[in-house]
Amino acid sequence: MRCRRCGFISSSQEGLLRHHQLRHKKETLWPCVFSDCVCTFKTPGALKSHLTRSHCRSEKREETATFFCELCEFREICTQRTFFTHLGHHLKNQETVHCPFLHCDFKSNNFKTFSSHRSRKHKNTKGIRNCFRSNPEKETFVTEPHVLDQSSNSEVVALPSSSRADSSENGGEDFVEAETIEHKLASLFLCMQTVLHVSKSAVQKIIEELNDILHFSKQHSHERVRQILTEHNIKVDDSVVQEVTDAVFNTNPLIVTTEAKGVLSTDHRRNLYFKDHFPVIDPTEYIYKRTHRNTFVYVSVIRVLENLLRQPDFSEKLVFNREDKPGHYWSFRDGRYFKANRLLGVEETSISIGLYIDDFEVCNPLGTSRKIHKITAIYWVVLNLPSKFRSTLPLIQLAALGKSADVKLFGYEAFFYPLIEDIKCLERDGVYVEVLDKFVKGTVFCVCADNLGAHSLAGFSESFNVEKFCRFCCLNRHQIGTVEARDFPLRTVEQHDQFVAELKSSDKDSVNGVKGACALSEHLSYFHPVTGFPPDILHDFFEGVIPVELCLCLKDLIKKGFITLDGLNSRIKLFPYKFSDKVNKPQQITKASFGKGRISGNGHENWTLLRLLPLLIGSSIPEQEASWEILMDLKEIVEIVLSTTLSEEILCYLESKISDHRKLLLDTFPDFRCLPKHHFIEHYVHLISCFGPLVDLWTIRFESKHSFFKKVVHDVLNFKNVLLTLSSKHQQMMAYYLDGQDLFKPKLHVSNVDTVNTTSLEEKLRKVIEKKFHNQDTVSLAKDVYIYGTRYTRGMIVSAGQCSGLPEFHKILNIVVNFEKVCFVTSKLSSWFMEHYRSYEVIDNGYADIEILETKDLNDYHPLAAYTVTGKLMVTARTCLLH
User: Fold this and answer.
1) Which of 490, 529, 561, 859 is deepest in the core (most CB within 10 A)?
2) Range 131-139, long-range pairs (CB < 8 A, 24+ positions)
3) What DSSP designation does 566 have?
């Protein structure tokens, strides 16, 4: 068998698996060892299961074809066994089933009778009439079977003589150096300590116990070697047997590396090994002042960036420039602030850094340790990576950790000092990028944070009840909800600098909402607080406006008698959530939440509730109901704001929708007082034109990074120097990912495919596949695939194209996988926009209009689900589908 990556030949599956595990251990996914199979797997165990299930049958594989049911809409490409399983469901419901075999008129509604008939009359019958194929009388097998050598204990695939000869010429199995095995073992221990969160004491106990077990088994190995030699009529002295046993025992990598004085025998030795053989960048501990013992830790941004740029997989994905399309916003490079930056917007190639700052609790926030161990964290990402790659947590780097109380006591300038020095070096000298063969300069483009964190670092007032509460404009607090967005007195760089100068020359606490200078802008040449702090969709919408307005409007709808609280909660509980909606199932609403004025739930749950609310209760609400229109306008606004591609036309529409939403909200609830976050949303149209799509800069993925540190604290239970402990663990984890080149989500992951002969497909499907894939007798079909971490499966709805100003929808019938290229076999749906539901009614035409779509054809990469509401099939979008 030949390795698909390097051409190495092995005579067995096990040998090829060992070769891949040692030689290609840095690969993210494990490909199937058979060249005609496109499956990939996340673990070697999954690959072994696939080989046993799909490639190790001594008999021929079952035929795969397009089967259809006469009693329902079942029409799938499957095996005959799957089709009869489907018929069994009808029989169990006592429905009359006509025998599907050719020239048979038998009918029955009894499962046992039908099974008995099939066993007696059609044991060797092959023709099925409920099947599409070019020649139903001729049986066609999909692929040739892979026969196993049954004479061996291991599963050895029978190879052609030429392959066996090549294998012998290559010396049989791949020889692996002792250093490689040692490194693999160290990688396992590093993974246990950092990724699996196994404590150091537990790892040490496991190693010691395994050593004891191996020593106890030495005598058994001696006896087994002697038995084998006797069975082969080889007579040797017992001393020779002992010498062979000792040689095997002493070359065991676990014994060599973990016994006394071995390089991996203790935690200290393992840490030394990690530093020498893995790209570990240790954190540095800094003291705020010499007169105090308070410290914080910092991880060099320059060293980490250099480490990342040495990774070919990382540097090759960097984007330094892109074609400018006027009137469209695809990334932060399309925004005004990037183009106006004197370094990033001028240099042909430059590195844009995005910072993130936030406070989080490592202990129970409701316990006695609340606020004692509250930590301020600074993370960063390279914005030159496309947004689809930046979502993985290993690509979010740690810059600094400090106690929140110390940061507040000594100030941001002391806390940011080492980071500022590194960024100044990056601005002045740059870092070497191998793929470009030159030094590239860079700077901080923006700082992502919640409103409190942004105001605190930028030097604005941290209270949102003051007169000048907004960091984007100089609007007065009492003017919220009364001034149009276009009339906002926006802050400018020159104006802000004047406010800071006035503040320094006077005894005032604040000037127009500015209470101090920004630590970053004081020392960096290309950063300014007015242009460097984008808004955050997560806190403004999903944890701000949405829970408040949902509570306000649902309370009004219940008061008017359109729905009841119990009825609403019952629908939330019993709704048939599909696909990703199951994971983000919304919380039920309590009476206490109405008293607090906001519903409970995290950002994902609130997003799901708002998006699916029309399908939950829309049929119970009369049209033109004001409270309902408020929620539906809010839903539409959220869809636009979450879009990754926006145009000037969409932004004009968004501006009018935000204005209409505010007016309707205040007209319907005159006593309602708008929140500061309502005002921040008024700036979104302007801010999108400045920062590009705001969804690329929101904090939701950064906040997920906190979970690692919370798990570490939970495992180590040591607060003596918690900052150094957390940062050291994090850097070891990053070294593990860098060593395994496992920073990115795989482009494509598919675990199971059916290779189907095109002649066995239905005529319409066969024609479109033959038109798309010329001169291919077979195609590989999958039930589901993962593309950059997003799952697509049969039955999902995707949007592609538009007609008469509305997006078109397609139902995924099958997924064609041609190596790394994925195409969706879809059925085009008829659709109408339902204004009351802010959703689309779709009609499934079955196989009426079959199309093959590529991922580049989709209006949005998010797959959708269709739900049946009052007898209608409804689809509700996640983002704006028109660009």
Assistant:
1) 529
2) 131/65, 131/66, 131/67, 131/68, 131/83, 131/100, 131/760, 132/65, 132/66, 132/68, 132/760, 132/761, 132/762, 132/763, 133/65, 133/66, 133/759, 133/760, 133/761, 134/759, 134/760, 135/759, 136/102, 139/63
3) H
Same domain, 250 and 102: no
Q: Is 760 helix (H, G, I), strand (E, B) or coil?
A: helix
Do residues 259 and 308 both lie within one domain?
A: no
**Across residues 299-328, what is the average pLDDT?**
88
CB 148 within 8 A of CB 155: yes
Instruction: Give the pLDDT mean for 744-755.
Output: 84
User: Distance of CA 169 to CAs 9, 10, 12, 305, 622, Å?
Assistant: 10, 11, 16, 44, 79
User: What span, in angstroms and rounded, lies between the C-alpha atoms of 862 and 875?
Assistant: 13
**Is 340 in contact with 703 (CB distance < 8 Å)?**
no
127-181 per-position pLDDT tens digit: 787 776 544 443 333 333 333 333 333 333 333 333 333 443 444 455 567 788 8
Using alpha carbons, select from 13, 8, 106 the residue that is nearest to residue 56: 13
- DSSP symbols for 614-651: HHHHGGGS-TT-HHHHHHHHHHHHHHHHT-S-EEHHHH
Asked whether the beta carbons of 299 and 400 are under 8 A apart, the reply is yes
Q: Could you tell me if residue 468 is inside a domain?
A: no
pLDDT tens-digit series, residues 677-700 = 999 999 999 999 999 999 999 999
Q: In terms of DSSP bridges, do strands 797-803 and 866-869 run parallel, antiparallel, or are they unpaired?
A: unpaired
Cα gap 729→299, rounded to integer Å = 12
Percent of the chain with pLDDT over 70: 87
Residues spanned by the domain of 399: 293-459+519-532+704-739
Same domain flag for 556 and 429 = no
**What's the one-letter identity of residue 711?**
K
| Farthest-apart Cα atoms in the chain, separation | 101
Spell out the alpha helix ranges (H) of 78-196: 80-92, 111-121, 161-169, 178-194
Residues 375 and 443 in one domain: yes
pTM over cut 0.90: no
**At 526, is the secondary structure helix, strand, or coil?**
coil
- pLDDT the model gives residue 30: 66
Least confident of 4-8, 354-358, 563-567, 661-665: 4-8
Q: How many CB atoms lie within 10 A of CB 807?
A: 20
Number of domains in the chain: 6
With bands split at pLDDT 50, 70 and 90, how would you rate the model's confidence at 867? Answer: very high
Task: Assess whether 148 and 40 both reside in one domain.
Answer: yes
* Sequence-distant (≥ 6) Cβ neighbours of residue 594 within 8 angstroms: 551, 555
In a domain, 598, yes or no: yes
Is there a domain that residue 261 lies in? Answer: yes
Q: Residue 10 pLDDT more than 70?
A: no
- Characterize 634-670 residue by residue with b for buried, 16 or more Cβ atoms within 10 angstroms of its Cβ, and e for exposed: bbbbbbbbbbbbbbeebbebbbebbeebbeebbebbe
Q: What is the mean pLDDT of residues 750-776?
A: 82
Terminal Cα-to-Cα distance of the chain (whole angstroms): 49
Pair 164, 35 in one domain: yes
Q: Is residue 820 helix, strand or coil?
A: coil
Burial tier of 297 (Cβ tally within 10 Å: 0-12, 13-18, 19+):
buried
User: Residue 196 falls within a domain, yes or no?
Assistant: yes
> Average per-residue pLDDT in the chain?
85
- Distance, CA of 443 to CA of 432 (rounded, Å): 15
Read off the pLDDT of residues 261-271 as tens digits, 9 standing for 90 and up: 788 888 899 99
Same domain flag for 677 and 552: yes
CA distances from 383 to 315, 443, 701 (A): 12, 11, 14
Within 8 A by CB and 6+ apart from 575, the residues are 612, 615, 616, 867
Q: Is there a single domain that holds both residue 442 and residue 304? A: yes
